[in-house]
Structures are given as C-alpha cells and as structure tokens.
C-alpha cells in the first residue's frame, strides 16, 4: 500500500466516498486510500428503508459512484478491509490481517452501528435491524414471507420500515417507550402527527410500551412480551432503537472521544493529522456554539468536503445547518435546523396539520431554531435563512401562509 504521502480514509460509506472525491476535485495528486470493512463499494443508506426496500429502485441506484470511478480517479478502494488500530504519532494504521500502513493524513468516516436491544431473546433468528444493504434485502424477503411483524422503536428507521411493511401488506405493531413517536427529536405536538399518520395506515401503535423479552421457540422468534404481561405474536421483530458511533478506533488511539470523535470546526480531531466526518464525528458548530453529532445524509455528504479541504491545508470550517428528510406513505418532509429536546418554548404551525400539508417552526423566544416542511416543497432555503439569521420573527406572519417566508428575513 501507499507510503507516508498517502491520505487515508477509514470507512467507505457516503462520507468516505465524498472525501475521496473532494481530494481529487481539489487537485490533490498524492495517493488516496479508502478502506472499508463492507463488501460493497460506497452506497447511500436512505433508499434502504424507502425505495430500495419498497422495490421501486434498484441496487445500482444506491451507489455513490459508478464501479470504475475509483480506478479512474486513482482512489485505491480496499473493500472487506477492517482497520483495527491507529498509531497517531507513528502515522500508521493496522489492518485486521496484521499489516501496517503509513499515512500522512487520516480521515475517520467510520459511521455508526445499530444499538442492540438489551433484553433476553434479542439474539433469536428473525430479530432484524437495518443499516446495511444486506439488512434491507433480508427485510424485503421477510415482508414477502411474513404476515405480521413487530417494530421496536418509533424513530425514523422504525417508522420508515413500518411504512414499507404496510405497503407490502404486512400487519405491523410498533412498540415505543415514549408517549409519541419521534418524541426526542420533534417533541410531543409533532410526534402526535406521525402517530396519526401510522394509525391511519392500519398500524397498531403502542406507545409507553416496556419490553420484557423477545420470545421464541427452536431459536426462532415468535413474539414480544411486554412488562405488563401483554404478548404480541410476530413472524419477525425489527429493532430500530438508535445507533452508536463507531469511535472505538479513535478512543483506543487516545483521541478525544465523547458521543463520537470530537473535532473542531475544521473537523480536525485532538491529533493535528487526523480528521473525522459524518455520523461518527461530534463537531464543534460555529453557529450553534457547541459540539453536535448529526446522523443524517446531508451531513455525511457535505461535512467530508470540508474535512478534505482542511486536510489539504485550506482555511475552512463546517457551518452547515443540520438537514434531513423522510418519506412515509404519502408524507414527504424536510427538517432544517437544530433543537435540543427542551430548548424550545413552542411550535408555530403554518398550513394544515390535518391535511398533513404544513410547516412547523420550533421557537425559543421569538427566534426560529428549526423548521420542518411537510408535503410543501421549496421551503428549505427560506427556512435555513430564517434559522441561520438568528433574527426575531413576528409569530403571526410566520403562521400566515399568505406571507412569503423569505420576506421574514431582514437584510
Ligand atoms: C436505513 C437508513 C435510512 C436512512 N434514511 C435517511 C434519511 O431518509 N434521511 C437522512 O438524512 N438520513 C438518513 N439515514 C442516515 C444516513 O444514511 C447516514 O447519516 C449516513 O449513512 C452516514 O454516512 P457515514 O459515511 O458517516 O457512515 P456510514 O454510512 O455508517 O459508513 C461508515 C462505513 O465505515 C465502515 N467502518 C466502520 N468501522 C470501520 C473500520 N474499523 N474499518 C473499516 N471500515 C469501517 C462501516 O462498516 C461503514 O461501511 C439513513 C440511515 C439508514 C441506515
């Protein structure tokens, strides 16, 4: 493998692929090595719980680049290759086969891993999660064969998977420990809208549920037992209770770690030649004034571009506002901004929540912290401008669909 002029990227997901692309686009002509422990070349994960799972898009459409892109751009893509150690001061890393490789600069884009459910029975056959392409394939097969499934966790992955299962004609029970779906990210008022969306589509949604164990016979799942003694039968159980950042390598190398790999606004870790981006990075955000770790596609797409430029010595910081999207049944939405669970006073709605065509704004004082447009399009740019401006707004104007959103941002 390449010598110590090499820029190495650990983690061949979306973030890793975008970093390699940017290094070449910026004219870097030294060795670029992209190391990934999966067998597939870098792909995008959002379709895995939406179009790919629904069968409306194919595998080829999930990949970040065509197969020959890496060779054409001189990117040494090593798949099925797990990095097991990093020596920051020695500027080398170790692979699972024991080999040692020198680098000049290193980028960590190791992403995140689904959190296991800490209850008995979680290791039975038929207890599934969703992160990788093969997980989505397994779910697709399950939806073909199963008549009823239980989904544990009403977060984004759990709800999107539920919508796909319903589209396949499968009966779904969703078990959620909070009072409404997505409570931690959206709060109760908006979480309730997602609860109705799913019950309207025939989902048996049970909030406030405490799981005692996953049950099964002959090693195969057959249901879920709740703490109150209720038993729900299931042909498969899908667990979507969040992810843990893959920061073990960084921690073992002595880098600062805390809810991910800690990086500054240039995406540089506590070692000057090691950077991190994407789901694994807890990055200092200059507009928000604190470290945040974002588990979304747009962050994994954009943050590595800044990291690559910083690795090349450019004077750059990452100040993109978090953005994400979801599609469930006939509801499409985009969310822009950042709100800690208890950091807002109230939510202002513009449009009709009943018809599921509205924009929700999270406010602290008279400032907009985030906005979510549901089945309304072309709203992201003015929402981003409102949030980034930090300006106070007139609540009545914010709620009035007749007042153009971009007129609310003063020059
Ligand atoms: C099913 C699903 C649906 C999603 N839908 C949406 C959506 O609708 N909207 C949205 O905004 N976001 C969505 N996301 C989130 C988005 O996909 C992630 O934010 C994005 O994938 C993060 O990219 P990443 O490159 O940082 O990490 P990852 O995609 O996790 O890639 C990291 C890669 O590094 C590899 N790796 C880890 N450790 C090592 C090691 N030691 N050696 C070598 N390789 C290693 C991992 O195996 C993995 O291949 C979804 C995620 C999932 C799973």
UniProtKB/TrEMBL annotation:
Keyword Ion transport among UniProt keywords: no
Annotated keywords: FAD, Flavoprotein, Oxidoreductase
Ranges where the Reductase C-terminal domain occurs: 323-408
Cofactor(s), names only, from the UniProt record: FAD
FAD/NAD(P)-binding domain: residues covered: 7-303
Statement: the UniProt record of this protein carries the keyword rRNA-binding: no
Superkingdom, taxonomy of origin: Bacteria
Residue intervals passing through the bilayer: none
Entry-linked InterPro entries: FAD-oxidoreductase/Apoptosis (IPR050446), FAD/NAD-bd_sf (IPR036188), FAD/NAD-binding_dom (IPR023753), FAD/NAD-linked_Rdtase_dimer_sf (IPR016156), Reductase_C (IPR028202)
Cleaved signal peptide residues: none
Protein name in UniProt: FAD-dependent oxidoreductase
């Amino acid at each position: 493998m390449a010598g110590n002029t090499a820029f190495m990227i650990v983690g061949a997901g979306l973030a890793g692929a975008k970093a390699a692309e940017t290094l070449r686009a910026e004219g870097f002509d030294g060795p670029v090595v992209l190391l990934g422990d999966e067998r597939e070349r870098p792909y995008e994960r959002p379709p895995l719980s939406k179009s790919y799972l629904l069968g409306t898009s194919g595998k080829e459409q999930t990949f970040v680049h065509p197969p020959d892109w890496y060779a054409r751009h001189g990117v040494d893509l090593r798949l099925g290759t797990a990095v097991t150690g990093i020596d920051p001061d020695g500027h080398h890393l170790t692979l699972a086969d024991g080999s040692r490789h020198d680098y000049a600069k290193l980028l960590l884009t190791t992403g995140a891993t689904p959190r296991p459910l800490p209850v008995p029975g979680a290791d039975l056959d038929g207890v599934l999660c969703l992160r990788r392409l093969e997980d989505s394939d397994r779910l697709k097969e399950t939806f073909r064969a199963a008549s009823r499934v239980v989904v544990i966790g009403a977060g984004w992955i759990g709800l999107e998977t539920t919508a796909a299962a319903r589209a396949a004609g499968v009966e779904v029970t969703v078990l959620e420990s909070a009072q409404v779906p997505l409570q931690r990210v959206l709060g109760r008022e908006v979480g309730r809208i997602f609860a109705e969306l799913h019950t309207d589509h025939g989902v048996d949604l049970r909030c406030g549920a405490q799981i005692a164990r996953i049950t099964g016979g002959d090693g195969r799942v057959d249901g879920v037992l709740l703490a109150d003694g209720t038993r729900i039968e299931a042909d498969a159980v899908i667990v979507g209770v969040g992810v843990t950042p893959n920061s073990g390598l960084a921690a073992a190398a002595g880098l600062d770690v805390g809810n991910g790999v800690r990086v500054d606004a240039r995406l540089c870790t506590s070692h000057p030649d090691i950077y991190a981006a994407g789901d694994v990075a807890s990055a200092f955000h200059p507009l928000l004034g604190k470290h945040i770790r974002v588990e979304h596609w747009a962050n994994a797409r954009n943050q590595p571009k800044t990291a690559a430029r910083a690795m090349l010595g450019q004077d750059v910081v990452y100040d993109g506002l978090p953005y994400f999207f979801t599609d469930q049944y006939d509801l499409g939405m985009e969310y822009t901004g950042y709100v800690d669970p208890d950091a807002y006073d109230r939510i202002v709605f513009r449009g009709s929540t009943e018809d599921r065509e509205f924009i929700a704004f999270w406010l602290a004082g008279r400032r907009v912290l985030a906005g979510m447009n549901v089945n309304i399009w072309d709203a992201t740019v003015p929402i981003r401008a409102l949030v980034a401006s930090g300006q106070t707004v007139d609540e009545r104007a914010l709620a009035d669909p007749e007042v153009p959103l971009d007129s609310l941002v003063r020059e």
